[in-house]
Give the backbone structure.
Amino acid sequence: MEPISPPESFLEAMHGVRRNLSAAAVFIGFALAGSLALMLVHYFTPEGDASPPLYWRLLATLSDLVQAAMASLGACIGLGRMGRDLDRPLWKIRTDGESIRRFFLPWFILIAGDSAVNRLLALNIDAEAHPESILLYMLFCCALSAWIIPIGACIMFHGRLKWTQVGEALAPLTRSFSLTAFFLLFGFISSLMLTFVALSLPLPYRLIIETADNFCGCIIFAGIWELCRFNRNHPPEHDFDF
């Protein structure tokens, strides 16, 4: 049995998010708080200094970790509440505290790892010698970040992060290539478009772009969650005839 088509899945995901706007607001609120700390550090970074002082680089790294921690808490609480409602009564994580205990670390690894890769690449870009590297950098970063929500959703649905069961947890992403590719492409395009818009806006307005980006993340989460439910309710059929 095949899952529903990508357009139908997208509409189902939208309906799931509308049904859980309060949970989405929690996720977005935590993510915005972390992004604001990160934006303020970048805003006050001394201009024209190719090599900021060590203390400033340490502050930038700390702001990345704060942003990752806040976004991880928002995912554990907000997306945990959404997942609980979308899979009621089967998903057994009943409290926010239990969700944080089980899922903070995997979310933090995903988000902090993404930030570390982005920062490492940014430090090694020579925009003057290779102007096209800026566009390639943006494309790569948006493509990388598109995987965060799908992987995090699969781990949450699985129930916990066990390194020996990562393949099993991520199996739903391989069940329907069309659905997985659809939500990855949606995440990539929305992130890329919003990034281009944010570059031309002052700091306060970038928070609006962040809100839109995180709302898109809620839609992706709901869509992947439904794919996980389908994978559980309709296990793959194996042909044992030889």
Notes: Residues 2 and 57 are 50 Å apart (CA to CA). The two ends are 22 Å apart (CA to CA). The mean pLDDT is 86. DSSP finds ten helices and no strands in the chain.
